[in-house]
Amino acid sequence: DAGVIQSPRHEVTEMGQEVTLRCKLISGHNSLFWYRQTMMRGLELLIYFNNNVPIDDSGMPEDRFSAKMPNASFSTLKIQPSEPRDSAVYFCASSFSGAGNTDTQYFGPGTRLTVL
Amino acid sequence: TQLLEQSPQFLSIQEGENLTVYCNSSSVFSSLQWYRQEPGEGPVLLVTVVTGGEVKKLKRLTFQFGDARKDSSLHITAAQPGDTGLYLCAGGPNFGNEKLTFGTGTRLTIIP
After folding, report:
1. CB-based contacts of A82, cutoff 8 Å, min separation 6
2. In chain B, residues 30-69 whose CB comes closer than 8 Å to chain A
3. Which of A55, B20, B24, B50 is 20 to 30 A removed from B8 (C-alpha atoms)?
4. pLDDT tens readout for residues A59-71
């Protein structure tokens, strides 16, 4: 089975531009997580969905960030307008959430975003 | 806010040596996970511990969850170059709750 798929793998853009990151979940998984990783702040949870519903978006930095799940297997993270401080590696992860289990999150390879 | 501090932040040792990495918090976690991340890839789960005092072994890696469920350690015996990577601990606040809090990470380099 294919793992979590993210695109693009690398994105370089100029300040003020809109950036859209994409993620395809592992087939059968029903939870989706967006993380951001930087040297200074480590790995931070931005938002997570369960069964297409946003459960916790307290990690979303500000209104410039938005995330959607248009269907059960796909998600987008949008930054508009982008700023240099948004430069980071963005990961999505998926898991299967079932009663009574400690869920394993499977991470994608990440998108390295550079905002000039 | 729950924080997980890992130590050391960086560790570089010779192949064949033993090492221990620590993950500490002032908060109680119902579960604790350890991940390894290699350059250009996402973190990969190594183990989950859920019971205070629990010890799990994965080949040369030994994981322990503190009795009070506030801390954990990872011990590697006879380290090999393939063990090189970023090691992350992650705490789950409630059993079955999906939100994880990740630690600050330990970057380990094994020198051949």
Report:
1. A13, A14, A15, A16, A17, A18, A19, A64, A113, A115
2. 31, 33, 40-45, 48, 50
3. B50
4. 998 899 999 999 9
